[in-house]
Amino acid sequence: MSVFYRRGLLVHPEEFDEALIGQMCQAGLNVLGLHPAGGKAAHDSLETAIRLHAMPASRARIDMARDRNISVEYEAHALRWLVPRSLFGMVPDWFRMNERGYRIPDFHLCVSNPDALMYLETRAEALARQLWTGAHRWSFWPDDVQGMGCCCPECRKLSLSDQALILTNAVQRGIRRADPLGCTGFLAYQDTLDTPKKVRPEDGVFLEFAPIRRDHHRPLSDEHCDQNAREIRSVPQLLSFFGRQGAQAVDYWMDNSLFSHWQKPPQPFHLDTEVLKRDAEFYDSLGFESVTSFGCFLGQDYRERYGEPPIGDFGACLQSLPG
Length: 323
Ligand SMILES: [Zn+2]
Description:
- The chain has 323 residues and is α/β, with parallel strands linked by helices.
- The protein has a single domain (6-86, 114-149, 164-319), classed as TIM Barrel (Alpha-Beta Barrel), CATH 3.20.20.
- 38% of the residues lie in helices and 13% in strands.
- It has twelve helices and eight strands.
- The chain has helices at residues 18-27, 42-53, 56-67, 79-82, 114-130, 160-178, 226-231, 235-242, 256-259, 273-286, 300-306, 311-319, and strands spanning 6-11, 31-34, 71-77, 137-141, 183-188, 205-209, 248-251, 290-294.
- An eight-stranded parallel beta barrel has the order 1-2-3-4-5-6-7-8, surrounded by five helices.
- Helix 1 (18-27) runs parallel beside helix 12 (311-319), helix 5 (114-130) crosses helix 6 (160-178) and helix 10 (273-286) packs parallel to helix 12.
- The radius of gyration is 19 Å and the shape is globular.
- Zinc ion (ZN) binds next to loops.
- Zinc ion (ZN) is lined by residues 97, 110-112, 150, 152, 154-155.
């Protein structure tokens, strides 16, 4: 029995090739997230992805995937690209205030500044037009950093999850102008695992849960694992808040970039199917409709070194739960 109607992998755009489409079809996977590398240079990797997207070969691959019922969707830490730091000299109040009271153009925005949010909205609209794939799910996430919310007197009243939801709502408004059916992921991850309290999601915002600080070799539901208990503490509440419809787990079972410590060359990869099976049961029991994993560092250079990655095993575990 197939329990999740969406099952997929997130890979770096440069890893998206015809071989991957074939592997995904054989594995029964129907979602391909294109994920420019995160971290503090995520704006640069997004810029590279935009250039790659415009190439005829990329467009042909996206069409080929879609013809084979694979939905191709961008999942990127986009904020610093959407609101470039070069604007700081003109509009310093758009940028966050740090704990010492200074406006600083490193990451994030002042989410209490309406002009900054309007600009973000306009840029998200333009980015969605540039990165069109025919899918209606978009993830233009906040920056991939921790502890960098805005500390101005207004934003100080908001949790980091509330601040992130204000950003996501602005992105969603922009996306809806480019794509009337468009929906945007709110990323519950690192600083934003707790449920927002003061802000409500716009229509079309769905939950994405990415437990990066979990123990990757123990099941999420393992009650004796404090690390995993901490990561999942708010998941039922998050699902109630955002709704189960479209809710997506973005986990790490296949993330060979993480297991290679984000350094090339890729390391040999072993899929922990026992943990994956238990986690799939866990996500199913909570009502997630969509289950994906990062799957970076398993592309052509991996295949040349080590042979085929276990994408088939991954797909099989998502399609049949024990019992
Ligand atoms: Zn602020």
